[in-house]
Amino acid sequence: MDLKLKNILPMFVYLLLASTSNAQSGVYDVTGANYGGKANSDITQALSKAWTDACASTSASKIVVPSGTYKFVGATFKGPCKAPIEFQLQGTVQAPEHIKELPKEDTWVAFERIDGLTLSGGGIFDGQGTTAWKQNDCHKNKNCKSKAVNLRFNFVTNSIVREITTKDSKNFHVNLLGCNNLAFQHFTVSAPKESVNTDGIHMGRSTEINITDTTIGTGDDCISIGHGTKQLHATNVTCGPGHGISIGSLGRTEDEEPVSGIFIKNCTISNTDNGVRIKTWPASPAKGTAVSDVHFEDIIMDNVKNPVVIDQEYCPHKLCTPEVSSKVKISNVSFKNIKGSSSGPVGVKLLCSGKLPCENVELSNIDLTYTGDKGSLTSECKHVKPTINNVAKPLACATSS
Ligand SMILES: *[C@@H]1O[C@H](CO)[C@@H](O)[C@H](O)[C@H]1NC(C)=O
Ligand SMILES: *[C@@H]1O[C@H](CO)[C@@H](O)[C@H](O)[C@H]1NC(C)=O
Ligand SMILES: *[C@@H]1O[C@H](CO)[C@@H](O)[C@H](O)[C@H]1NC(C)=O
Ligand SMILES: *[C@@H]1O[C@H](CO)[C@@H](O)[C@H](O)[C@H]1NC(C)=O
């Protein structure tokens, strides 16, 4: 009896230790024996299986995609997971070139209903969008086909995305919906100026979003802030090429939530059509929403066509009735310390709604030089009486109505 126990006990202890140490290490390498992923081949199955295992782990886990290039047709990585989860992409994953090969036509990679996600590793999500851009007419056709977003975050909370690149998305690069406390750090968006509809980071119905030390070069808005965004801090973001940093467009549909607490600080915007902008459609539906507590501060404009803009007559492709005033109320907005160069003649353009004039708008320390050849720099204001500090006359609502 004694002898038997002596033999069994160490064995039992060994097994116990082995099983706990396995769970604690918690590393799920897609190229490991369990998953069989290989560079230069498709890792869709391997990655989906690794996600299922890691998400079921009761202690913190880490998925690793080592350096190398892999094909990936796409997936939605779903939570809730049992513990915090890190997705470490060291290599490059490539989307199929043709939309019909994706499992969902509007999504390549999505993270959904996850609390405590870290997406990191220095790797690249390559959307291979060149073919899709040629077919993309989403800016004027609601039933367009080219909708695949590189990275969707749906209902992701208390999470970080750092040292990740999204490249050549077929449509928006990043879309946030229903997220709370999500930080992007040292994030990179890269697509050519000519790519259509490739907004960098778009968000809606999300709160406490931080974007810091991030470089965005793309064919549409660098950051686009949709309705229901509250408490966004974007600091040290470099934007260009692209269409600048925009709130809106708002006021197009009935059920929009307000936008508030937007802090855009220490950013550089280069060679874009717009710098910092708030845009709303005229002819808003019955119940308009509101935009308030918006602050653009310490912004360098480098050859930007329309550096400072509030446009409540936003009506591209004539899809609205511009004569009907916007019902979106804009208040408590500041533009402070905005320096650099304007490539268009209108440095400051504040076109507010005739029905709901903008309130409490501040222009402080705005210093722009004109690099174009159409006369000299000017400014245009409508339905707004901003507080003006240290702004030279031509930029201080030179024409006003
Ligand atoms: C986001 O930024 C705000 C303001 O700078 C800061 O207080 C907060 O801790 C940041 N949150 C994260 C998750 O980085
Ligand atoms: C700003 O972000 C860039 C990366 O885009 C980084 O290299 C640089 O150090 C950051 N600057 C500051 C002051 O943090
Ligand atoms: C803004 O940028 C300047 C110069 O790069 C840097 O010294 C400062 O710390 C930055 N401020 C913030 C809030 O990042
Ligand atoms: C605008 O700011 C004023 C003064 O700080 C404040 O009383 C008011 O509630 C703010 N309005 C909105 C809509 O946030």
From TrEMBL:
It comes from the Eukaryota. The keyword Secreted applies. Keywords: Cell wall, Cell wall biogenesis/degradation, Glycosidase, Hydrolase, Secreted, Signal. Its main location: secreted. The keyword Signal applies. Residues 1-23 form the signal peptide. InterPro entries: Glyco_hydro_28, PbH1, Pectin_lyas_fold, Pectin_lyase_fold/virulence. PROSITE patterns: POLYGALACTURONASE. This is Exopolygalacturonase-like. It comes from Pyrus ussuriensis x Pyrus communis.
